[in-house]
Write a structure and sequence with these properties.
Shape: globular
Family: Belongs to the aldehyde dehydrogenase family.
Number of strands: 22
Number of domains: 2
Strand order of the largest sheet: 14-15-16-13-12-18-19
CATH topology of the largest domain: Aldehyde Dehydrogenase, Chain A, domain 1
CATH class of the largest domain: Alpha Beta
Organism: Advenella kashmirensis W13003
Keywords: NAD, Oxidoreductase
Number of helices: 17
CATH architecture of the largest domain: 3-Layer(aba) Sandwich
Strand content: 15-25%
GO molecular function: methylmalonate-semialdehyde dehydrogenase (acylating, NAD) activity
Pfam family, one: Aldedh
């Protein structure tokens, strides 16, 4: 039996074995085998990573935009070539199916490709003769050392939501991936170094709350990006903000899909099945509530039958539709929430708790689970389940559906299925959710548009990707300059003459 590898840190361009006293086992969710050990790094090693990034910033900030662009071009090539290996690492430690893991890498690639456009994105403004003989212009400059803290559910895509744009803008970066599945994130960073990022520009540290807190409070870190649960994100945002840092926190969700009776039934039901149960529901943008409007409620039985046909298996099986949950703890929590739905008298139409996979009897499997008769007072509606569980709510009108969705405090994503342009327009104008899908159940926009979750799903004004990411990772300097050819005399007023 081969030795279990220790996951290294990445500091100053080199892999470093941690001196940590405490280590966590990284498990294959399909069979509970230990596939790696990840350190809870001591604070001294976090400080080493930040010091490396601070030193590298002195030269990296002055590296030309063209040179930074060419590194991003090389990185996208390397990620594309290494997609199979990245996907295998994701599936090994996270559990999602290989096709889904490959899709995740593809969504991450979108951001890297967007970063390749930095020469046309990081532009200031210039006004000649804004005052008499006075020119005004702006400089869009990097902040310095930045940090990213990511959740387990997208170990490649979420880091891509952070460091490519940040370093392309001239910042340096310290990444703390989830300790549950760190290897794909680390390999992605290694590819960035191979692409040409100088030592110290991108560093990776591992650990738990102590490491995250240090990144939030370290005096040399200027900005912190977080993607994960509401509980942790709220703490991260408060801690970083209190330390005077710029912070963005993309957090929990309860995403609804409103299905109108004029929708294309086959399209709507097939899309809903995939959005509710893909990745075993472990997506912050997963559809967890279906709102059936009017006669659309007659489609529920057909939806249940479609869901029964999904194949549950280890993610390495390319024919599987959903793999295991990430950990035994996650499985236990989801099972408890399902039981709470039963106890609160929701109607359990499909129970996935008895899912068994031959050869993977120790896996963290829960199959598609569907409740109807759900109310907004039930725990299965109020809490983000983060598992393959769908709640069905029935209302009479589109207006009732919009009011129902808007009462939920979260605002990450929402979808509507309809063939009426008027209904779609009413929906998008009246719904109070930051990301809307029209006949698309998971409305994550392409990377050159910003991720715009809202309300309780987000803290901070600026989200990842698109124009907002450029604003988040940079600061604007305004320069007012006069190069006078003659003396203009004394001016004791505020007016520019």
């Amino acid at each position: 039996m081969s030795a279990i590898p220790n996951v290294p840190l990445l500091i100053n361009g080199k892999k470093v074995q941690s001196s940590a006293k405490d280590w966590l086992d990284v498990l294959n969710p399909a069979n509970q085998e230990v596939v790696a050990r990840v350190p809870l790094a001591p604070i001294s090693e976090v400080d080493d990573a930040v010091a490396s990034a601070k030193q590298a910033f002195q030269s990296w900030r002055n590296t030309s935009q063209g040179a930074r662009m060419r590194i991003m071009l090389k990185l996208q090539q390397l990620v594309r070539e290494n997609t199979p290996k990245l996907a295998e690492l994701i599936t090994l430690e996270h559990g999602k199916t290989l096709p889904d893991a490959e899709g995740e890498v593809g969504r991450g690639l979108e951001v890297i490709e967007h970063a390749c456009s930095i020469v046309s994105l990081q532009l200031g403004e210039y006004a000649e003769n804004a005052g008499t003989g006075i020119d005004v212009y702006t400089l869009i400059q990097p902040l310095g050392v930045c940090a990213g803290i990511t959740a387990f559910n997208f170990p490649v895509m979420l880091p891509c939501f952070m460091f490519p744009i940040a370093v392309a803008c001239g910042n340096t970066f310290v990444l703390k991936p989830s300790e549950q599945d760190p290897s794909a994130s680390l390999f992605l960073a290694e590819l960035a170094v191979e692409a040409g990022l100088p030592p110290g520009v991108l560093n990776v540290v591992h650990g738990g709350p102590d490491v995250a807190n240090r990144l939030c409070e370290h005096p040399d870190i200027k900005a912190v990006s977080f993607i994960g649960s509401t509980h942790v994100g709220t703490q991260i945002y408060q801690r970083a903000s209190n330390a005077g840092k710029r912070c963005q926190a993309m957090m929990g969700a309860k995403n609804h899909c409103v299905i109108l009776p004029d929708a294309d039934k086959e399209v709507a039901l097939n899309q809903l099945v995939g959005a509710a149960f893909g990745a075993a529901g472990q997506r912050c943008m997963a559809t967890s509530v279906a709102v059936m409007v009017g006669q659309a409620k007659d489609w529920i039985d057909e939806f249940v039958e479609k869901s029964k046909g999904l194949k549950v298996n280890a993610g390495s099986d390319r024919k599987a539709d959903l793999g295991p949950l990430v950990s035994p703890r996650a499985k236990q929590r989801v099972a408890q929430l399902i039981q709470s739905g039963v106890d609160e008298k929701a109607t359990l139409l499909l129970d996935g708790r008895d899912a068994q996979v031959k050869g993977y009897e120790k896996g963290n499997f829960i199959g598609p689970t569907i409740f109807s008769g759900v109310t907004d007072s039930m725990a299965i509606y109020r809490e983000e389940i983060f598992g393959p569980v769908l709640c069905i709510v029935c209302v009479d009108t589109l207006e009732e559906a919009v009011e129902f969705v808007n009462r939920n405090p979260n605002g990450n994503g929402v979808a509507v299925f309809t063939q009426s342009g008027g209904n779609a327009r009413y929906f998008q104008n009246n719904i109070d959710v930051g990301q809307i899908g029209i006949n698309i159940p998971i409305p994550v926009p392409v990377a050159w548009f910003s991720f715009t979750g809202s309300r309780a799903s987000k803290l901070g004004d600026l989200g990842p990707n698109g124009k907002q990411a450029l604003l988040f990772w940079t600061q604007t300097k305004s320069v007012t300059a006069r190069w006078a050819s003659h003396d203009t005399g004394v001016n004791t007023t505020i007016a520019q003459k």
